[in-house]
Amino acid sequence: MSEPDFETAHLDDLERLPVDDEGLLWRPVRRRFGIEAFGVNAYTAAEPGQRVLEDHREPEGHDELYVVLTGHAVFTLDGEEVDAPAGTLVSVRQGTQRGAHARAAETTVLAIGAKRGEVFTPSMWETWFAGFGYQRAGDEEKGRRAFLDGIERDPESWPARYNYACFESLAGRPEEALEQLRKAAAIDPAETQKAVATDPDFDAMRHLPEFLAIAGEADSTGAST
């Protein structure tokens, strides 16, 4: 019998990966099904008042539709609050600053988006959302594999290399972190120096001569400049 050309899952089947320390949970949908035609993910706030959608603005030409699946959300769209109980659909055009908080426990928002007129390419941000999410959830090796899979797909992605360096630094693996920082610096040295200057993820490495050299704070011998 041939494999079916469809797959189903319940919302409760999706992983709950922590995005930050403020309660926002990422529920991978596109990765779960291997969808490559459009972006689709869900986000959950376990408690009222927590974020259920990050504050952000999408690039030009990118449309998004948000569907409140469970609970009750309040969207903030260019400073205007929009009440959104379960069942509400919110269509947001390019350039609009958007974010949302939960009014009820276990509020989940589904986000669907794509850029007009272009072939969809999965966004690299999923790489570090997955990597850091698994790390926060206690599955470091699965997080590492998420980063390596993303980097294999795009070895020249500066954000993927840089965030992987952060991941390994937080994991207590300075040599691996330095390797990724060197590769990030080879792609964009100025952005790397700017980013590491204040990033607390590297606080445990700031005494290392190799780190200081990458940060532009020391010469190749380790002497301060």
Tally of helical runs: 7
* CATH architecture name of the largest domain: Sandwich
Roughly what fraction of the amino acids lie in strands?
25-35%
Which structural class best describes the helix and strand composition? alpha+beta
Mean pLDDT: 90
Please give the domain count: 2
**Overall CATH class of the largest domain:** Mainly Beta
Parts with pLDDT < 50 across at least 5 consecutive residues: 218-225
Order of helices and strands: EEHEEEEEEEEHHHHHH
Query: For this structure, what is the CATH homologous superfamily of the largest domain?
Result: Jelly Rolls
| Strand numbers in spatial order across the main sheet | 1-2-3-10-5-8
Over all CA atoms, what is the radius of gyration? 20 Å
Q: What's the multimeric state?
A: single chain
Q: What percentage of residues falls in helices of 4 or more residues?
A: 25-40%
